[in-house]
Amino acid sequence: MAPEQWRAHARALAGQVTHPGSRWHEQIADTPRHLLVPSWWERDGGAWMLRRGQLAGAYTDRSLVTRAGPAHADHASASDRPEGCPMPVHALARIPSGWHRGQGVPRGRPVSVRYDGLACMTAGE
Fold first, then answer.
1. Structural domain spans, the chain
2. If pLDDT is split at 50, 70 and 90, which confidence band does 107 have?
3. From CA 112, how far away is CA 80, in angstroms rounded?
4. How far is 41 from 23, CA to CA, in rounded Å?
5. pLDDT digits (tens, 9 = 90+) for 64-91
6. 125 falls in which pLDDT band (50, 70, 90)?
7. What whole-number distance in Å separates Cα of residue 6 and Cα of residue 67?
8. Alpha-carbon gap, residue 80 to 23, rounded angstroms
9. Cα(60)–Cα(33) distance, rounded to whole angstroms?
10. Helix (H, G, I), strand (E, B) or coil at 50
11. 75: buried, middle or exposed (CB in 10 Å: 19+, 13-18, 0-12)?
């Protein structure tokens, strides 16, 4: 896949959840979320349905359910209909910028965050 295909979605998401001057804008705009969560579950008529390879779905500001009951989306087939509680591990895109603001981390201090491939950032960068 050409980078232009996912970058347009990533830039749109960054614009939705941050402002251009935000410390997180560039990181969200440059993160290939579709590689981090290639498959997820969505409720459709009361059943869990597998979603895979949908760029627009991976670049939304919503939690994506990667495990429904015992079934992980990365190891499922399209015909699987798992039962059980959802476990979202791909959180809202706006969360990391909120964490940063809420923690009152001074500029220049190390911040260790594991979110969508954004890791070990330094506040103020």
1. 3-122
2. low
3. 36
4. 31
5. 888 999 999 999 999 999 998 888 666 5
6. very low
7. 24
8. 40
9. 10
10. strand
11. exposed
